[in-house]
Design brief:
This protein is α/β, with parallel strands linked by helices. It has helices spanning 43-50, 72-77, 92-102, 108-117, 131-145, 161-177, 189-192, 213-219, 227-234, 259-267, 277-284; strands at 4-14, 17-28, 32-36, 58-63, 66-67, 78-81, 149-153, 181-186, 198-203, 206-212, 220-226, 238-245, 248-254, 271-274. The protein folds into 2 domains: 4-204, 3-Layer(aba) Sandwich (Rossmann fold); 216-284, Alpha-Beta Plaits (2-Layer Sandwich), CATH 3.30.70.2020. It is 36% helix and 31% strand. The strands form 3 sheets. It has a 6-stranded mixed sheet with strand order 6-7-8-3-9-10, with helices on both faces. A 4-stranded antiparallel sheet has the order 2-1-4-5, covered by helices on one side. A 4-stranded antiparallel sheet has the order 12-13-11-14, with helices on both faces. The two termini are 37 Å apart. Bound molecules: adenosine-5'-triphosphate (ATP). InterPro entries: AAA+_ATPase, ABC_transporter-like_ATP-bd, ABC_transporter-like_CS, P-loop_NTPase.
């Protein structure tokens, strides 16, 4: 079954600091959504609002038309996994037991398989796990719970590269066998972009872009060639970045190019190339990520 998540002009402040500013977008269906933003952009805050763990000051977040906040049945459909510290004395086995009690779709057999995949011991307590192991446990709980909306808030940052790769493979396998909506926040953009169907990019609490991954990367273009010709070609377009190398110039733009414009570029010996999501992210959020 597919679900509709609506984020309707949501704002949230802490004291006088507005952390989320009128964010507005919808996601519908079984998709893997990448939530991208720099440190402090507001990703965790937005995801906590979506999970109903915090109340927005303005606007509303609904799942299938019903508000999530203070709505037990909707909150049960949304699972939020993060690296925040849990009760350190609990054993891994107890964490699995507790999660199984609260999550109606929890698959214990799959959870036990994942425990082996990620080399975790169910006998250890949380305080005995390394940072990477704690991250892996969050991944196990999130995947095995099979909640219709599963949110991973940068849990992978503690995991080493081979373990992250295992996680990415599991997400893709799960999405094929038990489709649902995953929201994965990250700034490991180049490493994770192949997972995403849709991208939500936020910056300083505001929504910068929301689009399908493919559409978004097709809109990012570099135009390289003789400086004057490049300047003329990009005039009136959204310019993200410019680099000059002697008489040559490389400009990154964002927006669709018509066939006519592509032909014009060809005639003027301008080279048009695609921009990676990582480069778009860097340029759109103003500098090195
Ligand atoms: N409970 C809180 N009280 C006060 N300020 C907060 C609180 N939680 C978050 N903030 C502030 O809100 C802003 C956004 O924080 P948030 O954790 O949502 O960002 P983020 O995009 O997840 O960052 P990162 O990638 O570094 O984890 C930051 O300036 C942070 O200091």
């Amino acid at each position: 079954m597919s679900h509709k998540l609506e984020i309707k002009r949501v704002s949230k402040s802490f004291k006088k600091h507005e952390v989320i500013n009128e964010i507005d977008f919808n996601v519908e269906g079984n998709k893997i959504v990448g939530l991208i933003g720099r440190n402090g952009a507001g990703k965790t805050t937005l995801l906590s609002l979506i999970a109903g763990l915090k109340q927005s000051d303005q606007g509303e977040i609904t799942l299938d038309g019903e508000p999530i906040f203070e709505n037990q049945s909707r909150m049960q459909q949304v699972m939020f996994l993060s690296d925040s510290q849990r009760d350190q004395s609990l054993k891994v086995r107890e964490m699995l037991d507790m999660t199984e009690t609260f999550r109606p779709n929890f698959d214990r057999i799959y959870a036990d398989e994942l425990i082996k995949t990620f080399n975790l011991s169910t006998k250890k307590s949380m305080s005995e796990l390394s940072k990477g192991m704690r991250s892996a446990l969050q991944v196990v709980l999130g995947l095995a719970s099979r909640a219709p909306i599963t949110i991973f808030d940068e849990v992978y940052t503690g995991m080493d590269a081979p373990t992250r790769k295992k996680f990415y493979n599991e997400v893709l396998d799960e999405q094929a066998e038990h489709p649902r909506m995953f929201i994965l926040s990250t700034h490991l953009v180049s490493e994770m972009d192949y997972l995403f169907d849709e991208i939500v990019m936020i910056h300083q609490g505001k929504l910068l872009l929301h689009d399908e991954y493919e559409a978004m990367t097709l809109k990012g273009q570099t135009v390289i060639g003789e400086a004057n010709a490049v300047d003329q070609f990009v005039s009136g377009k959204k310019v993200l970045n410019e680099q000059r190398l002697g008489p040559t110039k490389s400009v990154t733009i964002y927006g669709e190019l018509s066939e006519e414009e592509r032909q014009k570029a060809k005639k003027q010996e301008l080279e048009i190339g695609n921009v990676s999501l990582q480069d778009l992210f860097i340029h759109l959020t103003g500098g090195e990520a």
